[in-house]
Structures are given as C-alpha cells and as structure tokens.
Amino acid sequence: MKAIGHHEFGGPEVLQVIELPDPEPRVGEIRVRVYAAAVSPTDTLRRAGVRALDGQPATELADQDFPLVPGMEFAGVVVEIGPDTDADVKVGDHVMGAMVPSGTRGSYAEQVVVPADSVVRTPAGVDDVAASTLPMNGLTALISIDALQVAPGQTIGVTGAAGTYGGYVVQLAKAAGLRVIADAAEKDRDLVASFGADVVVARGDDVADRFLEAAPGGLDGLVDGAVLNELVVGAVRPGGRLVTVRHYESEPIGGVTFHAVRVRYFVHDRAKLEQLRELVDSGQLTLRVAQTFPAADASEAHEVLARGGTRGRLVLTFDD
Ligand SMILES: NC(=O)c1ccc[n+]([C@@H]2O[C@H](COP(=O)([O-])OP(=O)(O)OC[C@H]3O[C@@H](n4cnc5c(N)ncnc54)[C@H](OP(=O)(O)O)[C@@H]3O)[C@@H](O)[C@H]2O)c1
After folding, report:
1. pTM summary value
2. Domains (ranges, CATH) in the chain?
3. Tens of pLDDT along 21-72?
4. Rounded to the nearest 5°, which phi and psi values hold at 227?
5. Does any ligand 1 atom lie closer than 6 A to the CB of residue 44?
6. How far is the CA of 28 from the centre of ligand 1 (A)?
C-alpha cells in the first residue's frame, strides 16, 4: 500500500510517498481502507522531530526507526475484522477513527490497522473527508470539558476558538449547558459566534483582561487552545481550572489548577467516539473542511497549515 512518510525529521518537504506492506489485523483489531486523513498541528510537530515519539525523545531515534508515518485521525471503509474480535462495525461500513502514530502506523496511509474500539461509524450524511476531521480533535475537546469539572450554567473561556479544536470546545460546551466566552480575531468574530459563543472577545496576549470584563468574578474554567499558558491564568477565579493542550503544567497559581490534556490516552474510548457521532447527528457539532489535497501533496498541506490562518481542517485524500 501507499503511505505518506518521512525518512528524516525536517520541514514539510521531507514528506514523501512510500510503499509499505498491507497491515494485517490481529485479535481485537480491524483494518480500514482510508479515504481521508486530517492534517493536525501535532502531525507537523512530529514531522519536525519536536515532539517525543512514544515517550522517546525524537533525537534518540536511529536510522532503522524510519520511515515514520504521521497522522492521528482518518475515515474510510472497514475491509477486514481481526480474529475473535468484538467489533461494533462490519466490513463495508464507513467509519472514522483516532490513533496514536507509531513507526509506520499512522493515518496518512491507504490502510490502517487499529483496535476495534478506536473506530465508530461515520455520522449520517457525512462524507469521509468531513468525518476524518472529528475523531482526534473531537475526543480532545470532550476530555477537555470533562477536565474543567464545571456544571451547567457556569462560565468558561476558550482561546484559539477559531481553530478546529477550539471550535469543537465551544460547541460541546454549549451542548453541555455552559456559558462560553471565546476569543477571535476581528475577521473571525462571526465564525466564532456561529459556534454558539455567548460573548466573543478580541484575541491577543492580553485577552485575560477582556475575559475578566465579561466575567468580572473570573472564569470558572478556561480551555487554552491558543497555548497562551501563564498569560491567561489571571482570567480564572481561584478554585477554577485551566486546561492546556501542549503539556504545560504548573503548581497552582492564585488558586487556579492546571490540567494538561493528552488525547493519546483516549483513542480507544469507543463510548466517547459514539458520543461525538451522535452530537453531529443531532446538529450540535458541525464539521469544517478548509481544503483537500491528494495524499501525494501532503508537503503542500503541511506548508499551508504552517502559514496559519486556515479556518477548518486540511484533509489528505487517498482515492482508489
Ligand atoms: N494535547 C493533546 O492531546 C492535543 C490534541 C489535539 C490538539 N492539541 C493542540 O491543540 C492546539 C489547537 O489545535 P487545532 O487543531 O485546533 O489547531 P488550529 O486549527 O491550527 O487552531 C489554532 C487556532 O488558534 C489560533 N491562534 C493562534 N495564536 C493565537 C493567539 N495568540 N490568540 C488566539 N488565537 C490564536 C489560530 O489562528 P491563526 O490561524 O490565525 O494562527 C487558530 O485559529 C494545537 O496546539 C494542537 O497541537 C493537543
């Protein structure tokens, strides 16, 4: 099968089409013919060697550890179910799934083998391209809201709300009955308001001031999709929680506790993936695709993502 991989760490240009053996499902696994794989910021960090791989610093990888295949989410069709496998899906079903890339196992590939718990049927009427944008970032958004430990009626803030993850957080928070104050650049105000944010404030390093104007006693919780870290702690009331996405943690500051979410521990949570599908089916969660690229043009997709300003997800397609 064809996949997109890299033989060294580096810029977008290191991505290339590589040939790999078809993966075989073992007990508890299924094989999916991938038609769409979403491109996320984490994929670019892995490609560049910035992010540790499976707990191992990228610098410790040897030549024989390459090529590496990136990609954490996909959609396609089930083609094989492993022996003695309890699967909720059957051969021929369109499914979406999340995975933690490891070696040549990543979602930028014509076929993936994943634990049966890591895939669910795609939402009704949603094609593979749109479905591929949901599992990984949707799971991250769900666990972020869980981590806030807030109740309906409480107020949260969201930074990076125009992004894929931030947008899902806003929509899921509204579905959970929370009041949401979200940041946006001037040009993205309408977009972020369309996700259901109650108040949209101007983004920036001093966004904490504007969160406090809208929530004078301080936010009950804050999800920091824009990775502003300590710059936004002051927007949260003592006793509130700040959820970070790039592993930023600290001792409590001003009574605010930190919680770094890591989606890698949740990719086998079939119940949460089902919940995401139902939220799309009910119209509470909407999917946004900015642009598709034939998989062979993955370098270009990574370049576009690195430039910033993309609204909606970039998706690689693996056609027949
Ligand atoms: N830990 C985990 O398990 C996990 C899982 C999923 C995602 N993540 C992380 O979550 C973050 C968001 O992911 P994503 O897929 O949503 O990325 P994305 O689609 O690129 O969205 C990021 C958004 O933040 C905006 N932004 C950048 N700097 C900002 C600032 N200073 N103030 C306000 N907004 C700002 C970006 O706008 P511009 O385009 O204008 O720059 C963009 O709209 C990434 O860092 C990703 O690595 C972590």
Report:
1. 0.96
2. 2-134+287-317 (3.90.180.10), 137-264 (3.40.50.720)
3. 999 999 999 999 999 999 999 999 999 988 665 556 677 777 788 999 999 9
4. 55, 50
5. no
6. 33
